[in-house]
Amino acid sequence: MKLILAEGGSASSLSCDVTDPCEVGEVFRHTLAHHGHVDVVVNAVGMFAPTPVFESDPEVVARLIDVNLAGGIRVCLAAIEAMRDAGGVFVAVTSTQAVLAEANSPVYAATKAGLGHFVASLARPVLQARHPGRRGCAWSDSHAHARQP
Fold first, then answer.
1. Average pLDDT, stretch 4-15?
2. 5 is a domain residue
3. How are strands ordered across the β-sheet holding 145-148?
4. Of 55, 62, 85, 141, whose Cβ has the fewest other Cβ atoms within 10 Å?
């Protein structure tokens, strides 16, 4: 962001409570009102808490799902809508735990794997919506991000 600003561009970094759909929507409405478009979204949603199999706190489990998975999905969908007309780049930060799950964090691992798969599943329909008939799709080998041309 510093480089963009140093070269005379316009950029901002915003955060919100991803468990609140109104706040997520407001971040994108603010960005569109202030900048006119959204070029890049880095969805770095996440929290960690251990969830041992025989000692998991149901409130912690629910919070991990709401923040890491549902919150990540909220940001994805809002970003795609904000970039629908002009395109842009969307990056979702997941975790190595999405594939290398540790014994005491199965819920965290599941939420990160779920977000990664959700984003990967968006790539083709988003690309096809912007470029009907096009078959290619740009995403990383780990499917951690999808590019909307």
1. 88
2. no
3. 40-43, 88-92, 145-148
4. 141
Does residue 8 lie in a domain region? no
Per the structure, the complete domain to which residue 36 belongs is given by 14-148
What is the C-alpha R_g of the chain? 17
Q: Tell whether pTM > 0.90.
A: no
Q: Is the dihedral of CA 111, 116, 119, 120 positive or negative?
A: negative
71 Rama class: left (phi>0) / alpha (psi -120 to 50) / beta: alpha
Question: Encoding tokens for residue 123?
Answer: 């790539």
Question: Are 48 and 109 contacting, i.e. CB atoms less than 8 angstroms apart?
Answer: no
Q: How many domains are there within the chain?
A: 1
In percent, the amount of the chain with pLDDT more than 90 equals 54
